[in-house]
Amino acid sequence: MKQATRLWAALLVLVLLTGCGPQRTEPLPYPEPAAPESGKTIAYVPLDDRPDNVERVVYLAESLGYTLAMPDRDLYRTALDGQPLNSNGTQHGDMGRLYQWVLEQEEAGCDRYVLSLDQLLSGGLVASRSARGYELPGGGTAHSLLEELMAALSADEHNMVWLLDSVMRLAPTVGYEGGTLEEYNAIRAFGALPRRTLEGDALNLENIDESYWWGPDGEDLRAWTKAEGTYEAALRSLRSRERKLVLSYVVQDTLAKPGYENFRLLIGIDDSSLEDCIQKNEIAFLRQGLRTVKVEDGERQSNRGEWQIDWLLSGVDDLAFKAVARMYLDETGWGAGYSTKLQYIGGTEDRPACEYDFQPLTEIMAEHLAFFDLREADIADLQILVLTQPEDGAKKDVYRKQLIGALQDCRKARWPAILIDASNGTYGTEIYEALTKQAELGYLLAYSGMLDMAIVTGTALSHGVARLAVLKNEASTDACDRAWARTLADSILKDFCYKGVVRNDLLAYIRNELGGDPNNFYSPELDREDLLRRLEEGMEKETAPVIRNLERSSFLSSYGWEAGEVEERRWGGVALENYRFPWGRAFEIGMDIRLGEFTD
Question: Model pTM greater than 0.85?
Answer without folding.
Answer: yes
